[in-house]
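tool_call: predict_structure(chain=1)
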Amino acid sequence: MSEALHNKLSGFTLMEVMVALLISAISLLGLAALQGTARTHIEITRQYTAANQLAQELIENMRANPVGMRDGHYNNINTAQPPTGVSGDFCSAGCTPANIATIDSLRWSESISNTEVLRQGTGITMVDAGRIIVTIMWSGDLQRVKEPKGKTSLDCSVLECLIQEVPIP
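tool_result:
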């Protein structure tokens, strides 16, 4: 008799197995959703890192050319309207600060437009009141879904945007 009672009490019931499978399935679905969210955040981080590197690159070029910065040659750079008729080596000898600023502007425009991470990237600069403001805007993954097709606004409330502001040394 004790042998029959022992066989009845050992093992799991069907209900216990089903509850365990349900909990496992919910956990796996949660992990799958977390992976998708993580991938989105990794892409956003890549975009901000690229924008930050491009902004720092121009700020360092500006600091290396203090006369060009003081004379306003870096003010109001807009990569949507890069300098035309200029190549990267147009003043191989005896460049003026204005020439250097033009070359920096051209190279920065090319860097932003050639960066695959920043879709439809645009950069704008402003040198004013003892500070340098560099703004880089792009069409990020999240904003592209929300934004109506054909809209090309440079409004930071619509596009992804990075603004770097540093004092002029």
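agent: Residues 14-64 form the longest helix (51 residues). Proceeding to next step.
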